[in-house]
Design goal:
Layout: E1 11-14, E2 31-35, H1 46-53, E3 58-62, H2 71-83, E4 88-93, H3 95-107, H4 117-120, E5 131-135, E6 147-152, E7 157-162, E8 170-173, H5 183-201, H6 209-231, H7 236-249, H8 263-275, H9 279-293, H10 295-310, H11 317-334, H12 351-362, H13 375-384
Parallel strand pairs: 1-8, 2-3, 2-4, 4-5, 5-8
Antiparallel strand pairs: 6-7
Length: 386
């Protein structure tokens, strides 16, 4: 097992009715900016719960943060934060809203002239403006980690940021919110969380058995939960398991002491930037091709995964590894998620060259656990996804 440090300061309030405890988590003297997305929280009752809990606070609202949080829209919120002397941010939404608020947390205290530099130059945020979250769409795990991904449509970029100053002070997870989530977003949430686990697990063994078992248990739980969730998202037990799996998939725990990959995410982000494809679906497009391309490096772990998660016990290591990849792609299909780029755009020709060249221009020429994901490898992987 590799050396590691682990510190996660996020307070989790999990369960039905926990939104009412908002007024015990935000300082009474805070000047609050409530941020949310397209307005679905006003249809499913979450908005009323949140604003009821904020009675007595000095707060303002900013709605309209889109999926793949858009930099230029976030700048409008940043103007409000500075002009109105906001001191606390409250994200009510899924990963896009929370990621957007993390950017704002950093940008609110950033002393440079161009906030995009935080992302473009990989500036770690050591201290950000305090914020909390009310999770409405389980998927990304951002409610319990310090990472964020922001899009900039004007330049066709999607960049990541992070740092210890971007952990939420608290996150409220009420599984009853899952009942109102559309089927497409439920499927995306399952696929997103599942691939998060794979990125931290599907590398090579360092003898970290407990970490492997943690990861495998999350994947097993997601596989068991998925059909029940898609059939009846209002079932509380199912929704609770789904929500907690998504959080545990990317709160930092399972990546400690083990090598991680993340090349699938880097490539997937470029597909979203180019075509606006849902983040989770870009992962489902790339993951099978990525694992096939690096079969020699990953086959032992793929075979272990096949046995422990999919009960594949027959055949050689390589045969079991290939069967595990097939099972993974079939799992995405069971969620009605297509896994070919041509399923999403008829403009796919030349995509491999565009993605490869973009990564080369940024100097991202040695990704993955072995630093073997070169621009040439990326080109082959993306071409294979057509």
């Amino acid at each position: 097992m590799l050396n590691f440090e682990l510190q996660n300061p996020v307070k989790i309030l999990f369960g039905k009715g926990e939104i009412a405890k908002l007024n015990t988590q935000i300082p009474k003297e805070a000047k609050v900016l409530l941020l949310y997305g397209g307005g679905s929280i006003k249809k499913n009752g979450i908005y009323n719960q949140v604003t009821s809990a904020l009675q007595g606070y000095d707060y303002q609202e900013f709605g309209g943060i889109p999926a793949n949080p858009e930099y230029d829209i976030l700048l409008d919120a940043l103007t409000i934060i500075k002009e109105q002397n906001i001191t606390f941010l409250l994200a009510v939404g899924g990963g896009s809203v929370i990621d957007g608020v993390k950017f704002l947390s950093s940008a609110a205290l950033y002393e440079g002239n161009e906030p995009w530099d935080i992302l473009a130059n990989g500036i770690r945020t050591e201290v950000g403006m305090p914020f909390g979250t009310v999770l409405t769409l389980p998927a990304t795990g951002t409610e319990m980690n310090s990472g964020s991904v922001i899009s900039r449509r004007s330049t066709g970029e999607k960049r990541a940021m992070g740092g210890p100053g971007l952990f939420p002070q608290f996150s409220i997870l009420d599984p009853t919110v899952v009942a109102s989530i559309p089927q497409r977003q439920l499927a995306n949430g399952i696929a997103d969380a599942y691939t998060h686990v794979m990125e931290q697990y599907m590398t090579y063994s360092v003898g970290a058995d407990l970490q492997d078992r943690f990861a495998e248990s999350i994947m097993n739980s997601l596989i068991a939960t998925a059909p029940k969730l898609m059939q009846d998202p209002s079932d509380y037990k199912t929704a609770a398991n789904f929500m907690w799996c998504c959080t545990m998939a990317l709160n930092g725990l399972i990546q400690k002491g083990v090598p991680t990959d993340w090349a699938i995410h880097v490539i997937g982000h470029e597909l979203t930037a180019l075509y606006g494809i849902d983040h989770a679906r870009t992962l489902a497009i790339i993951a099978p091709r990525h694992y096939h391309h690096f079969l020699d490096n990953k086959k032992e772990k793929l075979a272990q995964y096949g046995e422990r998660v999919w009960n594949i016990t027959e055949g050689s290591i390589e045969e079991r590894a290939k069967a595990a990849i097939e099972k993974t792609e079939a799992f995405f299909h069971s969620l009605d998620i297509p896994t070919r780029l041509s399923d999403y755009t008829d403009q796919y020709e030349g995509t491999a060259e565009k993605v490869s060249e973009t990564l080369r221009e940024r100097g991202w020429v040695a990704l993955g656990e072995h630093k073997a994901v070169t621009p040439e490898a990326v080109k082959t992987i993306v071409e294979g996804s057509y």
